[in-house]
## 1
Amino acid sequence: MSQEYTIAVLPGDGIGPEVIAEAIKVMRVVETRLGLKLNLNEQPVGGAGYEASGKPLPDDTLKAAKSADAVLLGAVGGPKWEAIDFSLRPERALLGLRSELGLFANLRPAKVFRALTEASSLKPEVVEGLDVLVVRELTGGIYFGEPRGVETLPDGERRGINTLVYTESEIVRIAEVAFDVALKRNKKVCSVDKANVLEATGLWREVVTDLHKKKYSAVELSHMYVDNAAMQLVRNPKQFDVIVTTNMFGDILSDEASMLTGSIGMLPSASLGGKTAMYEPIHGSAPDIAGQDMANPLATILSVGMMFKYSLDREDVNTVLENVVESILDAGYRTKDIMSKGMKEVGCKAMGDLVVQAL
Ligand code: ATP
Ligand code: MG
């Protein structure tokens, strides 16, 4: 009996549909080669969702996502929808999906492919072979804490307020994700906080330390203040394996880590926590290059790899896809975003075809 999976495929806007089309080609090959059945349930999201139903996250799209084994998303947003009401903006679909699916853990690997070592803004020896994973808490912290807002004081001066809140159970569940993935990697976790200034992150440090003692002594745990972590990431990034941190610190550090690799078009991500996880490239809808067959589809194809690893229990597929990408880069093929002298420039579709051929 062949295994059967349902994947909600949400192409979205801009280059989203272009990179998703290549990912679908790749999934079809994997399906045939492994003798699986993949039911791909394609639904509009973001600006496309708004056009189709007046909402960035249409009811049918949410239903498809909730009932799927995994969600694969392209990208949302674009100039066309910048002027509409905040609650109807394409980006709201992401917040809606995260909260409806209970996705509290965002995993962003920053990996430097051998052939792209020179693309980094850092010295080759600093980033060569770099493979860091940032685990960011996604549904709590200062982005969601109450009270929040802007109020006017009696004397007319305005005051802006946001509140950093973490409960013990929120910290435990994100730390568990980080320790669990570290066990499958190099067994090192660095927990990043600002425990010397912020009480909520003092609790963070305490809870992570306790959990480590109780359940994860096989993993090496260290702690770092966020300012130091930001510095260490550019000074000596290879000291890190898994970094686990709060929503806001993770937002910043994961962008910093991704830039060490030199290309936004190469990096996948996973959001885990609930029954159904979501996978997407870290880049946006790139309206400046949409519709020109120029986008790099590899971040999305590597997101498919993460989907097989974390949702479909087929880590081998992820390994194969990573190796295929490595070999295509070694052979000198590049999309425009990672192009350098002497290399062979290809478009989005041709890059997808190269992956299909190599598979
Ligand atoms: P968002 O707010 O959705 O994150 P953004 O404008 O901040 O959007 P992107 O849409 O990711 O960021 O685009 C940033 C730059 O990177 C653009 O110049 C875009 O063309 C380029 N870019 C993004 N993704 C890719 C890709 N897959 N291939 C090639 N270039 C890309
Ligand atoms: Mg952006």
## 2
Amino acid sequence: MGAPKSAAGNNNRAMSFYTKDKHLYCEKLRVKDIQARVAHSPFYLYSLAQVRENYEAYTSALAGIESMVCYAFKANNNLHILRQLAKWGSGGALVSGNELKLAKAAGFAARRTVFNGNGKTCDELRLAVDHGAMVNIDSEFDIENIDRAATSVKKPVNVLIRINPDLDPEVHPYVSTGIRDSKFGIRNEQVPWFLDRIRAAPLLNLVGVHCHLGSTIQDVQIFRDATFLMLQFVKTIRQEGFSLKYLNIGGGLGIDYERTNTLPRQADLIDRIRDLLTGDVTLIIEPGRSIVGNAGILVNQVLGVKANGAKHFIVVDGSMAELVRPSLYDAYHHIGFTEPVSGEVKTYEVVGPVCESTDFFGKGRQLATPHDGAGLAVHDAGAYGYAMSSNYNGRMRPPEYLVDGDRLTRIRRAEQFDEYVRLFDTT
Ligand code: LLP
């Protein structure tokens, strides 16, 4: 890999993306050269080495702990990236029937997949049972549907109870999931009812408990609090005669979007909970963002620069349709040019062409005034980027490319207008 190693060695910045002679590189390739080859803009660009480094940061931190890393597909479900993760031994955290099918297609071992969700349909549950995935119980109606699915498929199913731990991860309310009023999981005090219900269902095999606190978490102490609390549940449920194997603490570790170099990394999370794990449970974690987030960028081209009132705008060809996180969560993504840009430095709003004022990638950014056609990268876009893209304003989803050393591979074609209009066929 051509990227220089982190001098400090203790930040979680994507070292596979780096700047040399004012050019942005992805591993051994210059992004500007990739732009010339791709002939499509915008596009997503990923570094395989970075995905691998992030995944292995978990597996090496977990050495000596009975554990399973179940990558959360929702962050990025590109089949090529999934295949790599399956090859490296990752499990999968899934949230839909189609993600179950993708897990199968990518080669994930069924017994290393967990099917989550507060609104699983009966069809999806039958698929999960048939496939042999573990299933999380989320509510009273969910357990009835899981039981029915197992009866209709005539197979036992390994289940976990998703318990809402009522811990506040102090993140944006839209990505907080483990507090008391959340739509996910069951209330603590309901556990005995669920145990009785499971006892009455011969095809439901209770193997563990699950919780997920939220996303973009910056303080790993909350993972310790959750692990401690959930281990109490493991103990009391075992005392009720169940032989639990798994403690699943979900995903949620944040990444260094703001480039502060102060955020905890994978090893910090694991080290914070290590001494609590006594060896009689297998730990499951479900990271998404911290595996793919800093391994991808959205590459755009500058269409032009304009001013209105007191504001200066850089208008690029990418938009909230390709990357909605800034518009939806007011999320910060680092922005930089892919090539030398020498105009006057000003305070800019970086915006796209979508007909809506919330269509922006960054506000109040100090950037050099770019020439038309300059390449502009929105960083840390590998998680919940393409995965949350849309056709808003009639835009076709962009292609995705993967760099492995000096090799560039297109791993998803751009959507074509012809394919899109065919969806309107009435026959
Ligand atoms: N497990 C469960 C049960 C989850 O609900 C999630 C994410 C994960 C694992 C993975 O969390 P991660 O490690 O990626 O934080 N669209 C939002 C994020 C929503 C996350 C929802 N659940 C964003 O762009 O920030």
## 3
Amino acid sequence: NEQLLLQSEKLKLAGEIAAGVAHEIRNPMAVISGFVQMMSTEKDSTCYAYTEIIQSEIERINLIIGEFLVLSKPHVEQLKVVSIDEVINNISQLFHLEFQKHNITFSMHIVSDNNRILANENQLKQVFINIIKNAIEAIEAHTANGEIIIYIAKDAEGLNMVTITDNGVGMSEALIKRIYEPFYTTKSTGTGLGMLITNKIIQEHGGTIAIESKINCGTTIKIKLPQAEN
Ligand code: ADP
Ligand code: MG
């Protein structure tokens, strides 16, 4: 327990430092980006071939900074009663083209009524974006017949329960143990921040995450969240 406390203190401090650094980095990055854009329109520039690489690396840095800023945001703010069904339906529409592109069958099953939570809607969206993105990436690396299935239900205690199952590459026990570590990624273009942020948001909403996975079979992420009072 003490270890956990220390870890969360460390994480909090890291978040604060990250937020400061992120703001400081963003300005020079914008300037660099502007000049690279100018260079890329210059026909006789010998640097022409490199500008694309520079731009894509800048984008990558911006992605990491963006995720850092989410991480370091203060505790749950702007709470309102949110329909979990609507949030997930919304997000799945965002991914519609991605599903098509990777031949992924997506289905969503709403098993219980009144699935509502007091939440910061944007943060809740972020959670399902991160998880579905991981599911797509796990499928992409593994099978041409992908499937993502979401259930929205209530557990025995009346908590909202969302399970997201994919038939992707799966994870070893050792990988699952490290999944919330900052920068821990097995992908060449990953940031290793997605699940850390997901976990932080769920915890701040009074919820829990459990992961079940089997290598070469797939993964189920089970999220429990409190029910909003009427
Ligand atoms: P990133 O996606 O940038 O690598 P995440 O924190 O989202 O970072 O995930 C960390 C690691 O956990 C991933 O690199 C991947 O190895 C593993 N992972 C997460 N979700 C899944 C999944 N649904 N199936 C298989 N592996 C996963
Ligand atoms: Mg991810």
